[in-house]
Amino acid sequence: MTIFRSLACAALMVTAAPLLQAQAALKSGEQVYRETCMACHGPGLANAPRMGDTKAWAKLIGEGQSVLTAHGWVGVRAMPPKGGRNDLSLEEFARALAWMVRNSGGKWQDPDARMMDSIRAEERKRIEQLKKTGKG
Length: 136
Ligand code: HEC
Prior knowledge:
The chain starts with a helix and ends with a helix. With 136 residues, the protein is mostly helical. Helices cover 63% and strands 0% of the residues. It contains 7 helices and no strands. It has one domain (2-17, 27-133): Cytochrome c-like domain (Cytochrome Bc1 Complex, Chain D, domain 2, Orthogonal Bundle). The structure holds heme C (HEC). Residues 32, 36-37, 39-41, 45-49, 60, 68, 71-72, 76-80, 83-84, 93, 96-97 line the site of heme C.
């Protein structure tokens, strides 16, 4: 179910990408963090890496922006796909993660078009991997 939802969502985003209006309506990373991620990544719920915990984030940041964003988006262990928010776009999710990283010792920026392509490529790889192995 999750896989199909992600695929459908990816297809939607490809269609919507050239629409500048849609781009302008995107939420900021901080806004998405406050609305969604903070509930778990603020207090460290269920072992979520806490925002500001540079030690916990160092290893994750080392995975690279495209890989970590895609894995979080698809879902990994106790991290729910899309942070449990099906109305978020991949770009908004990516912005929220970049914002958490900037506040946790890293320097990631809001993704540009090239980074978004690279995140989508990692998303496809992750989905393939999950299909083959049944786990991440
Ligand atoms: C319902 C709680 C919850 C919400 C909401 C949530 N997360 Fe998480 N997140 C987790 C937990 C728990 C982990 C640790 C997963 C593990 O290692 O088992 C995690 C881990 C992660 C990771 C690391 C994934 C990895 O590869 O180890 C990223 C990236 C992440 N979250 C991003 C986000 C972003 C961005 C948001 C908001 C859009 C968000 N999360 C919202 C619970 C949450």
